[in-house]
């Protein structure tokens, strides 16, 4: 493997890891922060008659996790195209 392709592979994986770490931070903030630490503050607001803290702990976090999955797939497709490793039809 040449140095150029090795450098491109390293840059690709570095970008992938950075994306994963950013999404993990969002996951942590939503699940731990909004669902546990900030529940009392969030309970002052209501969605559909339910306190916001309860909503995040029960359903809101699931919606955010689903969004993160689709966002990761979208961004990885863009990253694959940028580095020329996308699946061409």
From TrEMBL:
Domain of life: Bacteria
Record flagged with keyword Membrane: yes
Keywords: Membrane, Transmembrane, Transmembrane helix
Residues annotated as transmembrane: 20-42, 54-74
Pfam families given in the database record: DUF4212
Keyword Ion transport: no
InterPro entries for this protein: Na_symporter_ssu (IPR019886)
Domain Sodium symporter small subunit: 10-86
The protein, known as: Sodium symporter small subunit domain-containing protein
Protein's organism: Salinisphaera dokdonensis CL-ES53
């Amino acid at each position: 493997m040449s140095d150029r392709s090795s450098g491109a592979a390293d840059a690709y994986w570095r970008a992938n890891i950075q994306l994963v770490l950013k999404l993990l931070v969002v996951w942590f903030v939503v699940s731990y922060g909004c669902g546990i630490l900030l529940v009392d503050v969030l309970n002052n607001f209501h969605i559909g008659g339910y306190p916001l803290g309860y909503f995040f702990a029960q359903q809101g976090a699931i919606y955010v996790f689903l969004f993160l999955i689709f966002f990761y797939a979208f961004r990885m497709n863009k990253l694959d195209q940028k580095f020329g490793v996308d699946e061409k039809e």
